[in-house]
């Protein structure tokens, strides 16, 4: 069962910036548009836990301050 489009509209990264998430239905993931973290979708449930997120290749991933 695909994720509800209304749910996808309100989901945001759980980090302090709360950026929107980009859905990849083929990979069953949600990717933060700011930090690039990748959150898995397991059994049609988004797992939005920072401890379980994978580092991604988003806009700020890999940048050093």
From TrEMBL:
A Pfam family reported for this protein in Swiss-Prot or TrEMBL: Trm112p
InterPro entries assigned: Trm112-like
Family statement drawn from the similarity comment of this UniProt entry: Belongs to the UPF0434 family.
HAMAP family: UPF0434
Name by which UniProt lists this protein: UPF0434 protein GCM10009681_15870
Organism phylogeny: Bacteria, Bacillati, Actinomycetota, Actinomycetes, Micromonosporales
């Amino acid at each position: 069962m695909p994720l509800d489009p209304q749910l996808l509209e309100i989901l945001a990264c759980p980090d302090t910036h709360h950026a929107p998430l980009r859905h990849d239905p083929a990979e069953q993931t949600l990717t933060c548009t700011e930090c690039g973290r990748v959150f898995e979708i397991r059994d049609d449930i988004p797992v939005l836990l920072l401890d379980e997120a994978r580092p991604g290749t988003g806009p700020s991933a890999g940048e050093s301050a």
